[in-house]
Amino acid sequence: MIDSTTPGRDASAPVPPAAAPSPSDVRAERRRLIGAIGALRRLLAERSAFEVADRRRLGHEARKRERVEAAHGRTLRRIGEGQAQQEASLTHRLDALDGERERREGQALSVLRRQSVERALGSTHLTANEVSGIGAGLVRSLAAQGIRTAADFHDVSWGKAPNGKGGDVLYLHRTKGGKVHINGIGEHRGRPLLEWRRAALARAEARAPRTLPPDERHRITEIIEAERVRLREELAKVPQSAETARAEAVRLHAEALDPLGTAEREAARLAAVRRAEFDTMAEQLRDLQGQLSAHVDAHGDIGRRVRRAQKRALRPAPQASHLPGIPSPRAPGTSTAGVGLGKVTDRAGARPVPGVRAHPGWLIPILYFCLTTVVGVGELADNTAHPVTMIASRLVALTATAELLRLWIPRVRARTAGPMPDGTGRQTSGVFLALTAAGMFEDAKTDVFAIACVVSVLAAVLFLAGTISRVATADDRTGEDPA
Predict the structure, then answer these.
(1) Which residue in 106, 114, 100 sits closest to 212, CA to CA?
(2) Best CA proximity match to 399, nearest among 365, 423, 426, 422
(3) In the beta sheet, which residues pair with residue 172?
(4) Residue among 421, 422, 399 nearest 410 (CA)
(5) pLDDT in tens, 246-268
(6) What are 57-88's pLDDT values in tens digits?
(7) Which residues touch 234 (CB under 8 Å, ≥6 apart)?
(8) Of the candidates 23, 201, 43, 198, which has an alpha carbon nearest to the alpha carbon of residue 118?
(9) Which of 96-110, 123-137, 272-286, 377-391 has the highest mean pLDDT?
(10) Following CA atoms 18, 24, 30, 36 in sequence, which dihedral angle do they give, to the nearest 10 degrees?
(11) What is the DSSP string of 340-400?
């Protein structure tokens, strides 16, 4: 039997401890950990811009959906209004058919009577025996001018002679247009001629029919009933047409929303993947910081230069700020927890709000405080302020300028845009009134002491109210008790 143990070595002998790493290996390992932590921090620094961009994406998607929904609502509203207008118009036309029969019968009777009168006048020929004073020669002269029956003229009038010479002559107005003068027909012959025509017209109107024939009335009734049936059919088709138009609008609405939904889901998937990558990098950063801490505990300090880099690397990882409406893949059980590394621009806890920038009007108090820092208060013209007031007013104005610039500049930039903190306006007004009151106290030429006291009290109240508002807002955001 062959022994499996190595000859010359006792298996029960203790294993000697591993050799300690050399200082160069310790420094190399330390620098590797510090470099890896720095690389992860640089990658994680991109998360703030990513969250802002994703918030804008959500805003763009919401606006696109709002536009599609608004267009769909307008289409449905137009369809409903069109349906109501068509139904009202058809109903009004159906109601009007009740009086349409009388109107059409009246029109038909008027046409029938006019045709009867025209036929009667056309058959009443002008002869020498019909009109007193009109002989055969004048009858031929009238016929030569187209006046043969009572239907060929309708009136007589006086006017200038055709050649422009002499006095007025009598003209006969022809039914087809124009007027003619017949030599030999003046007032004594023209009046009987007109009376003859009127008598013929009266006889024709008396003989004209006063009621419609039964067949004509039946024809009008059939036309009215056919129109009534047609309008009722159209009225019955209006809801169907409107429903068809609504179905088409719903189909177009669904077609418009389908690509939006597909794009939103794909963008949300990519955003979730990106957030998962950031969360993984954050976990890796914490693991590397733990390894670096363990390495420091095991091997101690290795030099001033490495110590500084090591201190920077061991800084706490930045806390992820929550952006509403963006879910985090690492936050199970909640649908509103958002993650981000947005830069905090106010010590009171305010976070950037993309799309909401501080108003440019804040430049006015900033410029005023800058000017006060230079010229002070109560030092205009030949007036001289107390040295304490000169120094204190300039320090207060300088402090106010610096504070407003610190709050306003980050909130104007696109990536860190946001509204000014609550209470800043009241604080600014309080400081402005305080500087104004200080100038009043230093004014030796006018007696404004009482007004200056009132302004001072108002300044203190405004500044205190603004400070309380900012503190309360900060406590609400951090979840601490204001007391």
Answers:
(1) 106
(2) 365
(3) 156, 180
(4) 421
(5) 999 999 999 999 999 999 999 99
(6) 999 999 999 999 999 999 999 999 999 999 99
(7) 86, 90
(8) 201
(9) 272-286
(10) -110
(11) --PPP--TT-----TT----GGGHHHHHHHHHHHHH-SS-STT----HHHHHHHHHHHHHH
Of 229-233, 280-284, 442-446, the range with the lowest mean pLDDT is 442-446
pLDDT at 322: 47
Structure token digits, residue 299: 């091997």
**DSSP letters along 192-260, please?**
HHHHHHHHHHHHHHHHS-SS--HHHHHHHHHHHHHHHHHHHHHHHHHHHHHHHHHHHHHHHHHHHHHHH
Judge whether 350 and 421 are in contact, CB under 8 Å.
Answer: yes
pLDDT of 62 reads: 93
* 147: its two tokens: 């006046």
Torsion of CA 327, 331, 336, 339, to 10 degrees: -60
DSSP letters spanning 114-161: HHHHHHHHHT-B--TTTSTT--HHHHHHHHHTT--BTTSEEEEEEEE-
pLDDT at residue 112 in the model = 85
pLDDT band for position 349 (cuts 50, 70, 90) = very low
Contacts of residues 229-232 at CB distance under 8 Å and 24 or more positions apart, as own/partner, are 231/90, 231/93, 231/94, 231/97, 232/94
C-alpha to C-alpha distance for 6 and 211, rounded to whole angstroms: 143
Tokens of residue 233, six digits: 């059919």
**Cα distances (angstroms) measured from residue 272 to each of 34, 276, 277, 328:** 29, 6, 9, 7
Per the listing, tokens 């300044």 go with 459
> Both tokens of residue 281?
């990098």
The per-residue DSSP string of 56-104 comes to: HHHHHHHHHHHHHHHHHHHHHHHHHHHHHHHHHHHHHHHHHHHHHHHHH
Q: What percent of the chain has pLDDT over 90?
A: 22
Q: What is the pLDDT of residue 373?
A: 87
Q: What is the β-pairing status of strands 179-180 and 153-160?
A: unpaired
Rounded Cα distance between 130 and 153, Å, is: 16
| 376 in Cβ contact with 383 (< 8 Å) | no
Residues comprising the chain, all counted: 483
Distance of alpha carbon 255 from alpha carbon 176, whole angstroms: 67
Output the pTM of the full model: 0.45
**39 HSE (CA, 13 A, CB side):** 8
* Phi, psi for 454 (deg, rounded to 5): -60, -45
User: Which two structure tokens, joined as six digits, stand for 319?
Assistant: 């806390």
Backbone angles phi, psi at 481, to 5 degrees: -80, 125
Count, in order, helices (H) and strands (E) of the chain. 10, 3
Percent helix, strand, coil in the chain (nearest 5)? 65, 5, 30
